[in-house]
User: Which sequence fits this backbone?
């Protein structure tokens, strides 16, 4: 049933509000806690019982962080890592080229630096080497090192790890495991098949952090002290948000605390990156996911693969500034490449149809560094899992993004086992694959079947989910500060969206090429400012600009706007419907 009777908004979407059970839970919570109704609606949507509401708004890391020893091989991994430190052995860190891999590598490198040791960083080239360890690189590293730690990769790397003769190997990862594990000292991964999966929400940096917690415990048992791990939570927060890990349980506390650490501006790489991105507010998950993360990723996508990890691990401000400038330029170039691929992929996907369980596109020469971002855009457009593949001759390398409740990584892994893919793997929300051209159509058809069995394609692609109704007069800075306490918001914890009904437009002003700034009023003395990004990319901008006194329902996310030392509430508009 539609919300406020909106079956089709100006953008063609149906509005869907909370169900009756959620509404009742919010009302009960309001009576039992005295929290604002809007906060109760957000908490009820998250499934938080009234008795736990206050505690949920103030997550404590010491209460939520699991015992690292819940993960198999954890004690062994930490012990071998510490033995290498104590013996002054040569350590190499083999990291994935994305934010999670770079942050994981930086955690280890910074920890070792504080212990008076250095480590060799190795990040494979996305195009020349591909994802994860390869036999040549591992054999080369083994000849010059005693211990190789693979972070954010390695769980499926049986051959490459076997090639690391003469060196011990530890894997700290979170990607889905196969029935067998590579033969090495330890594979610490909450998504191993013999794990319960209870901690499967951790990204690789979260796993690395847990290993360092265990290492600290073993050091204390010997009467020694390790580095301050709380000061490293900015890296964990960045990786958790950028890797789209669910912001649930311990991840909520890790990100909340990590944002506080980041606000102290102690890490040269993040300070330089924030400055070049003109990040002039207290850091939040939006900054991590859309300003910092893409820039860290840019090196691995279209430039030198190790730039991100080097930026995050350097203790030199001058080096950090140089790396940040280089990554910023690469990110600008990445956006241009992405725009061309996105336009072609969307056109192809729309021609094929956006109603199927899987939305996909493939093209010759599409840069492998941007196919994942484009897949994310397709997923957002269709509300379905999406795959985008770039071909170079007969072989295509692709990336996929999924929607909540649909495990894409497991399905990709099954396709590889069935011989439809050269290789593939990942986790629930994201996956990578390699496919031969003559297998493309049958592989995508089979993947669509597997995803359909998980419920993909059942939800309306146009549905806009809302947390409730809010009037402009109730949208205060104080209310928003309380709503923020229910965060941080991101994967599995979407930022609250509210409907603001029956508003008139006091004025509308075009900003830049395609945005629209609005002043809205409810006719009862309440009002607020609003911004609609990309308004003139479709029909909404011209309709609102030439409103002729008509009234509209607005839906979107409320945010605090700071300007000139004053704070005010602004609505970031997601959709509009005629009142």
Assistant:
């Amino acid at each position: 049933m539609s919300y406020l009777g909106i079956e089709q908004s100006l953008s063609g979407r149906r509005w869907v509000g909370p169900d009756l059970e959620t509404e009742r839970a919010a009302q009960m919570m309001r009576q039992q806690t005295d929290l604002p109704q809007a906060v109760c609606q957000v908490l009820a949507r998250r499934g938080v019982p009234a008795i736990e509401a206050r505690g949920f708004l103030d997550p404590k890391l010491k209460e939520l962080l699991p015992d690292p020893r819940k993960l198999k091989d954890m004690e062994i991994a930490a012990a071998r890592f510490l033995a290498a430190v104590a013996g002054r052995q040569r350590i190499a860190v083999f990291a994935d080229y994305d934010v999670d891999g770079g942050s994981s590598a930086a955690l280890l490198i910074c920890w070792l630096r504080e212990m008076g040791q250095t480590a060799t960083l190795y990040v494979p080239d996305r195009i020349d080497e591909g994802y994860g360890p390869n036999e040549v690189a591992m054999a080369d590293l083994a000849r010059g090192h005693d211990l190789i730690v693979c972070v954010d990769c390695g769980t499926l790397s049986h051959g490459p790890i076997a090639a690391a003769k003469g060196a011990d190997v530890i894997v700290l990862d979170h990607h889905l495991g196969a029935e067998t594990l590579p033969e090495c000292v330890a594979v610490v991964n909450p998504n191993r098949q013999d794990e319960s999966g209870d901690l499967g929400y951790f990204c690789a940096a979260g796993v690395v952090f847990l290993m360092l917690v265990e290492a600290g415990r073993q050091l204390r048992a010997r009467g020694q002290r390790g580095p301050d791990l709380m000061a490293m939570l900015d890296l964990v927060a960045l990786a958790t948000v950028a890797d789209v890990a669910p912001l649930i349980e311990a991840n909520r506390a890790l990100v909340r605390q990590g944002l506080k650490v980041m606000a102290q501006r102690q890490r040269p790489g993040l300070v330089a990156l924030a400055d070049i991105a003109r990040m002039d507010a207290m850091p939040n998950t939006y900054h991590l996911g859309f300003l910092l993360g893409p820039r860290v990723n840019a090196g691995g996508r279209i430039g030198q693969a190790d730039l991100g990890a080097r930026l995050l691990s350097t203790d030199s401000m001058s080096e950090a500034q140089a790396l940040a400038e280089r990554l910023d330029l690469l990110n600008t170039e990445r956006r241009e490449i992405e725009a061309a691929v996105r336009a072609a992929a969307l056109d192809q996907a729309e021609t094929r149809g956006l109603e199927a369980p899987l939305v996909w596109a493939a093209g010759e020469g599409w840069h492998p560094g941007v196919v994942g971002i484009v897949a994310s855009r397709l997923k957002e457009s269709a509300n379905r899992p999406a795959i985008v593949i770039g071909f170079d001759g007969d072989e295509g390398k692709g990336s996929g993004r999924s929607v909540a409740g649909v495990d894409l990584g497991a399905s990709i892994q099954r396709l590889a086992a069935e011989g439809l893919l050269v290789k593939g793997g990942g986790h629930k929300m994201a996956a990578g694959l390699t496919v031969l051209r003559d297998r493309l159509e049958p592989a995508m058809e089979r993947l669509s079947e597997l995803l359909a069995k998980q419920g993909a394609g059942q939800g309306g692609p146009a549905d806009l989910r809302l947390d409730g109704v809010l009037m402009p007069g109730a949208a205060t800075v104080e209310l928003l500060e309380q709503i923020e306490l229910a965060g941080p918001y991101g994967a599995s914890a979407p930022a609250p969206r509210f409907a603001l009904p029956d508003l008139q437009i006091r004025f509308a002003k075009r900003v830049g090429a395609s945005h629209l700034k609005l002043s809205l009023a409810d006719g009862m003395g309440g009002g607020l400012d609003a911004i609609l990004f990309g308004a003139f990319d479709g029909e909404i901008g011209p309709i609102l600009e030439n409103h002729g006194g008509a009234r509209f329902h607005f839906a979107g996310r409320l945010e605090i706007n700071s300007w000139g030392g004053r704070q005010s509430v602004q609505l970031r508009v997601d959709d509009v419907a005629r009142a």
Notes: The chain has four domains: 3-17+466-578, 18-56, 68-329, 356-454. The chain is about 40% helix and 20% strand. The chain has a mean pLDDT of 95.
